[in-house]
Amino acid sequence: MRKLILGLAITLDGYIEGPNGEYDWCFTDQDYGLKEFFTRVDAIFIGRKSYEMLQQYADSNNGETVPGMPAMTEYIFSRTLTSVKKGAVLISEDSITVARRIREQPGKDIWLYGGASLTDALLKEGLVDELWLSVHPILLGSGKPLFRENDSRIPISLLECKTYESGLVSLRYRIGK
């Protein structure tokens, strides 16, 4: 079965974007492990807000959504969108069942890019296998937190920790014991 890996940038105080949706605090001066990560995945799960943000970025960057990202199947989870870009797959109903079915298909692992609502739903259903968090050395003070309140504890085990000269710390955890 394919693994679902939440991989994203986060501030030290737990935010994935600033109070106005900004992500200008994210380091882009080097690869930070993305090239290696891209060899592990061939699909990406994206929520509506993250999809719209990526499309805005692509519009001003010659169509590139994430620097160095190879072609992969994009699954857009949204109850409000009626269409997505050519080649992407819109999932508008029964997202948990569809996510389970996609995980059971052959292929490489799947990148859970975000956003917070999709991540929360998939975590609560036990569908996320790994967390790969690029912790940026900044305290935003407010914004959109990655994790919401949860009714139960989720045990995690450290798989890898890598520190960069910039102060960014890359943390990989397996969910569960």
Low-confidence stretches: none
Number of strands: 10
**Total tally of structural domains:** 1
> Given this structure, which CATH class is correct?
Alpha Beta
- Strand residues, percent: 25-35%
What value does the Rg take, in angstroms? 16 Å
Bulk shape: globular
* Structural class by sheet pairing and helices: alpha/beta
Q: Biggest sheet, open or closed, and with what strands and sense?
A: 8 strands, mixed
Bin the helical content.
10-25%
Mean pLDDT: 91
The CATH superfamily is: Dihydrofolate Reductase, subunit A
The total of helices stands at 4
Order of helices and strands: EEHEHEEHEHEEEE
- Termini separation: 18 Å
Largest beta sheet: strand ordering: 5-4-3-6-1-7-10-9
CATH topology (level 3) name: Dihydrofolate Reductase, subunit A
CATH architecture: 3-Layer(aba) Sandwich
How does this structure look, described?
This protein has helices spanning 34-38, 48-59, 95-104, 116-124, and strands spanning 4-11, 15-17, 41-47, 73-77, 89-91, 109-114, 130-136, 144-145, 156-163, 169-175. It has 177 residues and is α/β, with parallel strands linked by helices. The protein has one domain (4-175): Dihydrofolate Reductase, subunit A (3-Layer(aba) Sandwich). The longest helix is centred in the N-terminal third of the chain and has 12 residues, at 48-59. The protein is globular, with a radius of gyration of 16 Å.
